[in-house]
Amino acid sequence: MMGRYYDHYSEIPAGHWPWRHFRPAEIACRGDGAILVQDEAMHRLEALRERLGQPLVVASGYRSPWYNRKVGGAERSQHMAGKAFDISLRDGLTIEDLVGAAKAVGFTGIGRYRTFVHVDVGPAREWVG
Known about the structure:
alpha+beta; Muramoyl-pentapeptide Carboxypeptidase, domain 2
């Protein structure tokens, strides 16, 4: 899966961001603003938002390698490949609601945590963190 990398999300050319429910800043690395855009992952994130019919809070999207180390991410985290998102739970949205919808739209990696759900388009697996 090829992606498009930008040193900062503000470098994304006008008209090259088709996902209407998310802004590049929401998906970019929280450490330095870099972003690796993987269309498949973004299309699934948009589909997840549509399926749930409510806004989603992306707590973590792309992570640069140094930022991933800083936050204690997995050594081969899908976040560094632009393929993963951590979605914060909101009022009225349960872990199981989010997991069910994520599976329905084709996310293959699912991690359940107390305050968020990790979703990715990497190898098929599930875990509880």
